[in-house]
Structure formats: structure tokens, C-alpha cells
Write a structure and sequence with these properties.
homodimer; alpha/beta; 9 helices; DJ-1/PfpI family protein (chains A, B); signal (chains A, B); INH-QAR (chains A, B); DJ-1/PfpI (chains A, B)
Chain lengths: ~270, ~270
């Protein structure tokens, strides 16, 4: 019995040592993120898409809750405090303040909600065109020039910026139905759920990729523990590798097959 | 050359026959869904969760767009037309009308947004308790009695109904953090992303499962083609098998191991 008790105590000792080592590790790693905080401005414009804007909003709000206030998030518009109607006759949201392109943090631009194609007033291209005639493009130009700001987009948000020439030669993604247009507008379309072009521009694909854009930015700015807590609360797991122009680029088999065909002499039987 | 042309024409003929057979098939299947339409009421209450309510809202709105108006969706409240604040000091949404428990279709109840536990005013259990003191429970009781209504919930929405005793002995799911409470309130908790208890009550798990609840209901009421179009637009694929009490039930190995131990005589060496 005494021997068993001795064994048990050694086991408890080992366990407690292991436990302290495990609990020490996160502390070490947290140092990179110590005193980190982020402010997020989500830009509303007439005809914006509800989910594009509010899925990231809620990820950032929950991250703020779990971090004891290290993340703050607000809805803004180019015109300041006003009620902004969403697309497809959807409900309006109140922008709390004017977009401030001098404020450090993240500025997220959602896409529009409407008919995916066509020339009607409620077609997405027309809604984006109208947003482009407001004060928004100038403000976003200033945001891109500010080294303390990361610009993020969801869905048609990247098209909106590309229309102003702000994404010239930048890697970006948008909803699958807008990828050709994104290329035609001077951006470099990349087929990924989330694309990071340098550290200061992050774009997401269709509607629900806003969850992935926001979760990625939460992890990047505050570490993986807060992002994981939000994922568990939302019962969602971030999807897809965040593409950025680093590491080995994969062989493009369409191009390389063509190239090797051209190089090889024709085989005549 | 003539032979080649003949072959080509036969090939074109076969192709066109195949194509007409393919295009005929959906028509046959569509008959079940012919002239189908659905109206969806999404219930707002003070402190509701934005995504729980708006992810399904946007799925139904997009389904309406793709079906040429076979789906209509509106935001409602027990008190009628009013501005309803979301939880965690989030933005308010305008309820367009009073919840009508006599109107055929779907009534969807979202959960609350706030601290996942605790006794503070902004803790989820307290927000749900306050919603229960409004006219909502009586209206939902009448909705459950109406054979032309399907009640759907997302996240804490099922807890809200369970608090009123409306889910007694019904299969349901809620956010993982609320599953024990759901059982304590008389429901039968089922670990699935979407649970269908008979055809007139469908519940979803945490926040983002609202996408799956709405996509399932769109498929059930209007067929898979509209649901698929919405999935592609949103770049989201419905997740998980919709659980319902049919077919073979899986062996519960925790229970059966215990049972077989008890049945077998102890083995003495």
C-alpha cells in the first residue's frame, strides 16, 4: 500500500510538472500579442450586403467579448452617422460614425446585395457603381496610403475598390461570379477563399467568406486562442489556406503542358 | 469527308436527344414543387443575435430572388413594427410587422447575443428570460398549434421555446454550450447540426447553423435547385445530416458496453 502511495505521489508530481510546463507555454507565446488591440470600421453604403458586413461584425464583436475589450468594432459610412439601407429592399443599419481613414486598425468593405447580373437598378454592378460616386473612393485611397491600416474586403467589396483603380496589380479575390471582372479592372484574381496581398490588404470570396476573413484577422492580430473561442461559439471552422505570394508556387499544368508540347518535336509514326 | 460529316450529324443528333432527356428530367421532378411558395417570418426580440436572424434572412431572400418570388421573408416582433436592438450593444433592426401565428409558412426564432454564462444583465440566459416575459411565448404556442406553420430555431432560439415548456419531449438542438440546459428544460437534446422533430419543428445548433437550417427548409419546400443556387452565390455548402427519428438508430456503445458487462458473469482466473 505504501509503495502504491509512493508511486501515486510520483505520478502526481510528474503530472504537475507537465501541467506547469504546458501552462507556461502559452504565456511565452502571448508576449508577441501583449497589449495588442484593434479597432475595426465596417463600411456601409446604400445597397450593401447584410451578411458581408455583419458576419465579420459579429466575429469581431465576439473577439472583443472574449479578449476583455481588445477588439472594438463599429459600423461607419462615408457620409457619417445615418441609416443605411441594405440591398434587395433589406433592412437598414445605423452607421454610428463617419469612416475615418486616419484611424489605425482595420477598415472592412462589404459587397452589394442584388441581382448578380444585368443592367437593372438593383443589379450588383449598378449598386457598386453608385457607391463609387460617393466620397468612399477618396477615403479608401487615403486608407490604403496609411501604414497603420489594413484594408479588408468581402465578396463584391474588392470589385468596388478595383473600380477606383485601387487594386491595380494587387492579388485579390471576390465572389466567383465577379472574378473575370476583377481581372478586367486591373487586379490579379487568385482563386482562394482568403487572399492576403502584403500585410495591409486582405480580401475574401463570396458572402460567407467574411467569417474566414474576420477569423484570420483576429488570429493575426490577437493570436489563435481568441479566434478559436469565437469559432467554437459560432460552431464554424475557418476554411481554406490564406493565400499570399510566398513559398513555392505550384506548377501550372495548363501552361506547362502547352510549353512541353511546343518544345518537343512532333512524333511521326 | 462525307463520312465524317455523316458521323458528326449522328453525334449531334445523339447529343440533342441526350440534352432533351436531361432537360426533361427536372421538369418531371419539379411537379412536386409546382406552384409552391413560402412566407417566412423572422422574429426579433430585444438582445437577439444578428447572425442567427440575418443569415437565414439572407438565404430566404436569395431563394426568393432565384425563384422569381416564391419565397418572401420579413422581420417581425411580438409587439409589431418597431426598432429592435440586437445584443451586445449591436445595431438595431426594424421589425416590419407583428408576428402573425395564423399565417401559413415558417416562423424562425433566433437566439440571443451576449455573455455565454453568468448572471449579468447582458448574459444570454437573462436576455432569453426577458424575451419570455413578452407576448412571444403565447404567440409561439399558437404557432405550434397551427398545422400550416413550421417553427424553426437557431442557436438559443430553441432554449427560448423550451423555457416556455413548448419543447417538452421534442427532439432539438441548440448551441453546444446550452445542450445541458435544453435537456433540463424538458426537450430531448440531439447532437446534430440540424434536427427535425416531425415536419413542423426544425432546430439548428450554434450561430452559423442558421445557414444550414434555412438551406434545408428551402430545399424541402422548393426543391434542391434553388438551394444549390443560393449555396453557390454564398460560397457555402450545407453541413451535416439533418437528424430525424427515422431509420435504424445507431448502437449507443456507452450504454451497450455497460449492459453487456452486467449480463456477463465476472471472469475469475
Amino acid at each position: 500500500m505504501k509503495k502504491f502511495f509512493g508511486l501515486l505521489m510520483s505520478f502526481v508530481l510528474v503530472l504537475s510538472l507537465v501541467a506547469s510546463a504546458v501552462s507556461a507555454k502559452p504565456k511565452e507565446k502571448n508576449d508577441i500579442f501583449e497589449d495588442k488591440s484593434m479597432h475595426v470600421q465596417i463600411v456601409l453604403f446604400d445597397g450593401f450586403d447584410l451578411l458581408d458586413a455583419l458576419a465579420p461584425y459579429e466575429v469581431f464583436a465576439a473577439a472583443g467579448m472574449y479578449s476583455g475589450g481588445a477588439v472594438t468594432v463599429e459600423l461607419v459610412s462615408a457620409e457619417g452617422k445615418r441609416s443605411v439601407p441594405s440591398g434587395m429592399n433589406g433592412p437598414a443599419l445605423e452607421a454610428q460614425a463617419a469612416l475615418d481613414p486616419n484611424r489605425s486598425g482595420i477598415i472592412l468593405v462589404p459587397g452589394a446585395s442584388g441581382k448578380p447580373a444585368g443592367n437593372s437598378e438593383d443589379a450588383i454592378p449598378n449598386i457598386l457603381r453608385q457607391a463609387n460616386e460617393t466620397g468612399l473612393p477618396d477615403m479608401m485611397k487615403r486608407a490604403f496610403e496609411n501604414k497603420n491600416i489594413t484594408v479588408a474586403t468581402v465578396c463584391g467589396g474588392s470589385l468596388l475598390l478595383a473600380m477606383d483603380g485601387l487594386l491595380k496589380d494587387r492579388h485579390a479575390v471576390t465572389n466567383q461570379i465577379g472574378m473575370a471582372a476583377l481581372g478586367a479592372l486591373g487586379a490579379i484574381p487568385v482563386n482562394a477563399r482568403v487572399v492576403e496581398d502584403g500585410p495591409r490588404f486582405v480580401s475574401g470570396g463570396g458572402v460567407t467568406s467574411g467569417l474566414d476573413v474576420a477569423l484570420y484577422l483576429v488570429e493575426r492580430e490577437l493570436g489563435p486562442q481568441i479566434a478559436n473561442a469565437v469559432e467554437r461559439l459560432f460552431e464554424y471552422e475557418r476554411r481554406g489556406t490564406v493565400w499570399h505570394a510566398e513559398g513555392i508556387a505550384p506548377i501550372d499544368f495548363k501552361t506547362s503542358q502547352k510549353a512541353s508540347k511546343e518544345e518537343q518535336p512532333a512524333v511521326v509514326p
